[in-house]
């Protein structure tokens, strides 16, 4: 049973990346692959600073700043130089691989002998698992409150308008290029925070840890949307992402405990995402056809 509670703790930490990806993919409607690099950058920055004696809270905040810079780079490429969004993010993703290597100095970096946020929490909660969950919940609650507040502001509403219809938003006097950059900075800052927390929880940062993370984050969003498909407030929708991330991790643990090879982890991850994406369509096709005519007599 402990392994499932551990999956819940991991799901909470990964859900923060889902929150970040929700901003870029759902609100801004921007195909941003920078997230894989900014996730690693958050982990690399936190690990490097922490192992050099920086307080883990400061190291984590610095990781957020590093992720925001990554998002800003993609934003500049696509708004100033008019490089297509997907290509701009791929360029940033490729460049940041080398930068992350330089930050760590090695392909991986251990937190061994270094205090992390989880170690600090263990001073209040003796149980390691409770400390992991507590740290995750604290950051998740803070992130949701900040996001709800931000998207109620004029800038937040301008970001939403830009994502809904950039041409219309521009005609209303909204500086859409600036809104794109702001949203990408916000999104990648959250993603880098997730990377920093996951690295501290795992006890190490690795240059490959961001690979395939988009699937994990999208799974959190999609599962939450499938389970809570009715119209929701922003706060409830963000909470659904947290629940989606937890459910996703629990499903993976359950499948792996059935005897599947751990090398098939990514295959299983992609399959789970595909199933939840296909679920609404399959359900619609299997449901009885509704009679749209109304009655045989037609109009009276």
UniProtKB/TrEMBL annotation:
Membrane spanning stretches: 12-31, 57-78, 85-103, 129-151, 179-199, 211-228, 240-259, 265-282
GO CC terms in record: plasma membrane
Coarse class of the protein's main subcellular location: membrane
Keyword annotations: Cell membrane, Membrane, Transmembrane, Transmembrane helix
Bilayer topology: Multi-pass membrane protein
Cellular localisation: Cell membrane
InterPro entries per UniProt: ABC_transp_permease
GO molecular function term, any single one: transmembrane transporter activity
Name by which UniProt lists this protein: ABC transporter permease
Source lineage: Bacteria, Bacillati, Bacillota, Bacilli, Lactobacillales
